[in-house]
Amino acid sequence: MRNVSAKQTQKLAMAGIWGGGMITLLLLIVIIGYVLIQGLPGINWEFLTTNPKGGLSGEGGILSTVVSTLYLIGVTLVLLVPIGIGSAIYLSEYAPNNRLTRIIRYGIETLAGIPSIIFGLFGYALFVTVLSFNFSILSGALTLVCLLLPTMITTTEEALKAVSYSYREAALALGTTKWQMISRIVLPSAIPGIVTAVILCIGRAIGETACLYVTMGGSAAMPSSLLEGGRTLSLHVFYLAMETNAMDKAMATAAVLIIIIILINALTNLLAGRFQKRLKGIS
Amino acid sequence: MTRYFTDKLAKYIVFISGFTSFIILLLIALFILREGLPAFSEIGVFDFIFGTVWRPGIDQYGILSMIVGSIAVTIVSMIMAVPLGIACAILLAEVAPSKVRNILRPAVELLVGIPSVVYGLVGLVLLVPIISNIGGSGFSILTASIVLMVMVLPTIISISEDSIRAIPVSYREGALALGATKWQTIKGVVLPAAKSGIGAGIVLGMGRAIGETMAMIMVIGNSIAFPGSLLDAARTLTGNIALEINYATGTHESALFATGVVLFIFILLLNSVATVFLKRGSNAQRLS
After folding, report:
1. If you average pLDDT over residues A128-136, what whole number do you get?
2. Model confidence at A4, in pLDDT bands (50, 70, 90)?
3. Of A107, A113, A210, which is closest to B213 when you measure between CB atoms?
4. Which of A27, A49, A232, B217 is the most buried (most CB within 10 A)?
């Protein structure tokens, strides 16, 4: 009798486990499906190549928001990539196992858990007010660098650590300095992993809103310099949904975002797979 | 000799960039405290945290209703997300054949990537009308909690799955050899061994929930009134900051930074708890 009930419990539990998985999948399908079905009909050449009219009408396209997003990502990467890679090199190649290293790691972990809006407050206080960059793409980008740094460092460090130790030993045995070993052997081998880290950060930058909402100003006009305000695609969705009745435009913009995110995810998976294969193939 | 000079220079440069994150963390804490302190001293810590009236127009700054709002959406969303997330993690780590895993894992990754405004938009257009049929305006703690549930699922799933995977196969083999069914093995051996990691996943999920801003603003109604039920509109701590910081001045602005201080403390507490869980998890595995 006991066996029978154990088997029945097993069946019930498995049904629950499968149910949980299928509900998760269903949630994703509903969200993506709904946005694409509602949004795709609104996407056409005109939508992509005209500026939003701004104000309460919500009419117009998304051109200036795409340009603002690209400016923002460009400025962010210029600062984020060197600092992130430098920091990852320190942690993976130099950092001794001591208290200072633990403090640095604590800093990175804690920073990774801080909500976007707190970064926004900080950016507002430091970049917008004290440094008087005002509400601008520059203020937004600097805030975004702070927010993305932990992601960039952690992912790059993993890529560096994945490079086999024998590479380093071989280089040092040939009489290179440590830096020659890192710059000519370790970094080139880790490039696919570092590229993955950069793409991951781009994806997060595209989706980020809260910290930009309070630092970028949200102007719908075409930005002509980095010291002007702007709105990213994500911010545009927010403004359309909250301040206008143009829900069709909001959905179309959201569909553009979803398509970009799907492409970015596919790209990182592809690169990560390649990277694994390459490292395995050589060593 | 220049290569030795380059070597030294490179070492210092990477050391400085290594320290950047910690400096940013210090600067954030410093700036938010500095800007928030005037509010704490003018309003009083007790009146600020336990005051129920937020009316910047008449200099009333109490954030209790937002603390309650933030905690309510976090708890309700976790009640829904935890069972779902753990079931999904067990499926991915123990049960599903690789074909199913290869569909489900990218799906979970995609859930992480979807921007929070898109969650907010779908909640606004799809969920708000449904909830308004049950009662109220539809902009409510319940609506916000459902949206949050979806957003925190990936955090719970991926951290729980990792910790379940980290359990040695020998544990499972031992249980199965004793005649336990697959479920008995999972429930009696695997889950107890992975409970620290799962705990960490839940706590980190709570951190994400309490920090979420834009999606909350879009579906929770942002009312400053004290919420009486799950169908009432409310406002979160994050929403309070985002909605008012751009036009606030003086004590009002400082009170918003002080709201940030309260939020910061919540997050630091949750992160410390998660760290303790994770440490305990890796210690337990080292012992085995």
Report:
1. 88
2. low
3. A210
4. A232
Q: What is the pLDDT of residues A57-113, one digit of tens each?
A: 778 888 888 999 999 999 999 999 999 999 999 998 888 888 888 889 888 988 988
The answer on A63 and A109 residing in a single domain is yes
Verify that A178 and A157 share a domain, yes or no: yes
Do A193 and A257 reside in the same domain of the chain? yes
Q: For chain B, say whether A132 makes contact (Cβ under 8 Å).
A: no
Q: Find the helix packing angle between B141-165 and B191-211, rounded to 10°.
A: 140
Q: Does residue A219 share a domain with residue A98?
A: yes
Q: Which two tokens stand for residue B215?
A: 């999606």
Q: What is the pLDDT of residue A234?
A: 92
| Interface check A179 vs B, CB under 8 A | yes
Dump pLDDT digits (tens) for B128-151. Answer: 999 988 878 889 999 999 999 999
Interchain contact, B113 vs A261, CB within 8 Å = yes
Same domain, A17 and A149: no
Residues A73 and A153 in one domain: yes
Q: Closest Cα partner for B144 from B82, B72, B74, B216?
A: B216
Q: How many domains does chain A have?
A: 2
Q: What share of chain B in percent tops pLDDT 90?
A: 42
Tell me the mean pLDDT in the region B88-106.
89
What are the φ and ψ backbone dihedral angles of B60, each rounded to 5 degrees? -110, 115
User: What is the reported pLDDT for B225?
Assistant: 82
In this structure, the answer to whether residues A18 and A121 fall within a common structural domain is no
A153 and A236 in a single domain? The answer is yes
Q: Does the beta carbon of B176 lie under 8 angstroms from any beta carbon of chain A?
A: no
Overall average pLDDT of the B29-52 stretch: 89
The minimum CA-CA distance between A13 and chain B, rounded to whole Å, is: 7
Instruction: Name the residue among A6, A121, A269 with its Cβ closest to that of B241.
Output: A121
Structural domain boundaries enclosing A31? 2-42
Q: Is A237 close to B121, i.e. CB distance below 8 A? A: yes
A-facing residues of B in 73-92 (CB < 8 A) are 83-88, 90-92
- Which residues of chain A lie closer than 8 angstroms to B85, CB-CB? 20
Q: What residues contact residue B216 under an 8 Å CB cut-off, 6+ apart?
A: B73, B120, B144, B147, B148, B236, B238, B239
Q: What are phi and psi of A230, to 5 degrees?
A: -170, 175
| pLDDT > 90 fraction of chain A, expressed in percent and rounded | 39
CB-CB contact of A153 with B54 (8 Å): no
Closest CA to B203 of B159, B263, B142: B159
SS3 letters for B91-107?
Answer: HHHHHCCHHHHHHHHHH
- pLDDT band of residue A143 (cuts 50, 70, 90) is very high
* Residue A273 near chain B (CB below 8 Å): no
Residues B150-197 have pLDDT tens digits of: 999 999 999 999 899 888 888 888 888 898 888 888 888 898 988 888
Domain containing residue A92: CATH number: 1.10.3720.10
Closest CA to A133 of A223, A213, A228, A210: A228
pLDDT at B231: 83
